Amino acid sequence: MASLLFLRLVVPLALLLLPLSRSAMVVTHLPGFHGRLPFHLETGYVNVDEETGTELFYYFVESERSPDTDPVVLWLTGGPRCSSLIFYEVGPMKFVLAPYNGSLPELAYNPDSWSKVASIILLDSPVGTGFSYARDIESHRDVGDFSSTLHIITFLNKWFIDHPRYQSNPFFVGGSSYAGKMSPIIAQHISQEIKQGKQPRINLKGYLVGNPITDSMFYDNNFQISYAYGVGIISSQIYEAAMRNCKGNYIRPRNKMCAMVLNTIEDLISEIEKEHILGIKCEHDLLRRRFLSEEYTQQSELSTEQPAINCNAYRYYLSDIWANMDSTRYALGVKQGTIGEFKRCKKVCPIHLMPRAA
């Protein structure tokens, strides 16, 4: 009788503690947000490589409209190696932009979240990004685009097996910046698995990219001259001079006149905020970055200098502070001891600058 009473008391307590040790949990409250979250949020890990102990961390935000029929979108952040926290781009939360005074950054609901019309899977990929980790630390360094793609395919297959409710929903692979390279490859792999009859059968409908990286040197950067002219950053006279002297090759100038006009264009573009051309130019960014590409505009370190509030990077500054708090990691179900300091982006990519005239 005593043992039965013990089970009745202890087992319910164990069930209450279980979500903190499982691979997935429902999050109803977040530090910095007052009250219960106005959307369904699930976080968790999926093991994608048994040998290296690689586990990818995800955020799943269920559609606030009709989750049984609305699309499911996998959204990948660029970088590469930038975390997909729910505050960036398409997610349901945002930071209250107030001067940071050492306390917990405050959060607010984002009324423009894609979760208004779709369920979103935000994934920290590749391993070593955000809260994703591996038991074998070398796997953080060795993972490339191809192996990362295979990890994501494994993640999706396991995730849909664990979430059969969404298997029939229209599914899209999406992402920004560097994910422009990854999204089509992932979609192709899924399409091949569908043709082979593999299970689970993901209801792939397509892929979508935002400001995508394709081939930075020969395609993306080369077309930024036309883009700069199209949005009014450079005049028609300068654009015509570039076309006349560079003959469509804006990467490696082959004559002095081409180099001079490209230098002029680079100087003009350096006057704007490259991530958001209508935003405020932020002087805290000391690196000269190549034109309008997002590939090299991500913060890789927790800055010791607070950027101005009206700078786009200020929310990145707040996110690093927020994600490094113990209360945040506890609320998200982050496994203790798996990562050290959280950095939104953990790798600095090389910066390709246009050659300047002598």
From TrEMBL:
Pfam families: Peptidase_S10. It comes from the Eukaryota. Residues 1-23 form the signal peptide. One of its GO terms (biological process) is proteolysis. Keywords: Signal. GO terms for molecular function: acyltransferase activity, transferring groups other than amino-acyl groups; serine-type carboxypeptidase activity. Coiled coil: none annotated. Belongs to the peptidase S10 family. This is Serine carboxypeptidase-like 18.
